[in-house]
Design goal:
It contains 9 helices and 18 strands. With 411 residues, it is of the alpha/beta class. It has 2 domains: 283 residues, QueA-like; 102 residues, no CATH class. The strands form 3 sheets. The chain has a 10-stranded mixed β-sheet with strand order 2-1-18-17-14-3-12-13-16-15.
Length: 411
């Protein structure tokens, strides 16, 4: 069966609200760890994850940084309007470029209380920050389906948009964590290795890792490296269509260094572990980007490299050896004199997906009937039901602030 024909109703389970983690544990690496391999399950904690990964493996993390994407404005009449900054206007090359904008920026947003925001009305917010008084203004430009294009401008004009968000915004907790973000979330809804501003949701598999755990990986000669995928709010987008063919997958920016691509090529005989579904989507997208270059070396001459949600299921692209694909990417970056591969991926990984790079996946427990659960089902097959049932029966905590798993894919 082609993944387009999958019925989302076949990928659900009952998740009682009491199983959802609304707060993180006091210690990151004390979270429960479910280890699945070849049909068997073991239980431990993240502090010991190195014991379940062979020497010379390559563990790849997503070093995106969550930005304070929720901005609250008050109207002169006292009413409140919330602007949730989703992603930059398509005119910018990438999120990093948009985050570095000074004076003003265009952003696609969700608006809470949009009906109260009259056309032409400028919303203003003033705060006292590190640079003194900061004034932020928001102007409504146009409506696009469920999103709004907003012009945000500020003084001092020398501040970047990233600095403006840090000064004025709030941490955007997932919608199923039904509480207001507090000061603790500013640290805990962020990985310890977060580096590049751009996400509106954390790569939650990485929340369990501490510097001590990373050090234990290094001591066991487990290599680590990083990709950047800026997580959009689309990661929480529910699948409302009955069959996947009618569901539009969200697209996200990825950034990868040539050295990472070389590291993957060099360690092909050793396992590659994707820490998080975002890392997995990035790694697998690399294969298809390279395959497209092998098929047509000029395919990215006039547009940003892009993978749509169904390209991975086109048989002509599946024929290339992994080493040839990775070599094609490195050659492309060298010829273009690029120090970073910046691309967008809309890849939808569902049962029937032909995995090319990742051998293991570190991930949390996901919502029923979600594309993330489809990804897990693609990775370990029908055993996803056994894994989730085990987690439910053994007091694992679910979703973003919950416990997690190390899943090994059968070859």
């Amino acid at each position: 069966m082609h993944p387009k024909d999958l019925n989302i109703a076949d990928f659900t389970y009952e998740l009682p609200e009491e199983k959802i983690a609304f707060f993180p544990l006091t210690q990151r690496d004390a979270s429960l760890l479910l280890v699945y391999q070849s049909g068997s399950i073991a239980t431990d904690i993240y502090r010991n994850i190195d014991q379940y990964i062979p020497e010379h493996s390559l563990a790849i993390f997503n070093n995106t940084k969550v930005v304070e994407a929720r901005i609250l404005f008050k109207k002169p009449t006292g009413g409140q309007i919330e602007i949730f900054c989703l992603e930059p206007y398509e005119g910018y090359a990438d999120i990093t470029t948009a985050m570095a904008q000074q004076s003003n920026v265009l952003w696609l947003c969700l608006i809470g209380g949009a009906s109260k925001w009259k056309s032409g009305q400028v919303l203003t917010r003033s705060i006292n920050g590190p640079a003194g008084e900061t004034i932020l203004e928001a102007r409504f430009l146009e409506k696009r389906d469920d999103r709004f294009l907003i012009d945000l401008s500020w003084t001092p004009a020398s501040l970047s948009f990233a600095e403006i968000l840090h000064a004025t915004g709030q941490v955007p907790l997932p919608p199923y964590i039904k509480r207001t973000a507090d000061a603790a979330d500013e640290e805990r809804y962020q990985t310890v290795y977060a580096l590049h501003d751009g996400s509106v949701a954390a790569p939650t598999a990485g929340l369990h890792f501490t510097h001590e755990v990373l050090q234990k990986l290094a001591q066991k000669k487990i290599e680590t490296d990083f990709v950047t995928l800026h997580v959009g709010a689309g990661t929480f987008k529910p699948v409302k269509a009955e069959v996947m063919n009618d569901h539009e997958m969200h697209a996200e920016f990825i950034s990868v260094s040539p050295q990472l691509i070389r590291n993957i090529a060099r360690t092909q005989e050793h396992p590659v572990i994707a820490v998080g579904t975002t890392s997995l989507r990035t790694l697998e997208s690399l294969y298809w980007l390279g395959a497209k270059l092998l098929r047509d070396p000029h395919c990215f001459d006039s547009r940003i490299p892009y993978i749509d949600q169904w390209e991975a299921y086109e048989e002509p692209l599946q024929q290339y050896p992994v080493h040839a694909v990775l070599d094609a990417l490195v050659t492309y970056l060298s010829e273009k004199q690029l120090t970073t591969l910046v691309a967008k991926t809309q890849i939808l990984i569902a049962p029937g997906y032909p995995f090319k790079i990742a051998d293991a996946l570190v991930t949390n427990f996901h919502q029923p009937s979600s594309t993330l659960l489809l990804l897990v089902a693609a990775f370990i097959g029908d055993d996803w039901r056994m894994v989730y049932q085990y987690a439910l029966e053994n007091d694992f905590r679910f979703l973003s602030y919950g416990d997690g798993s190390l899943l090994w894919r059968g070859r």
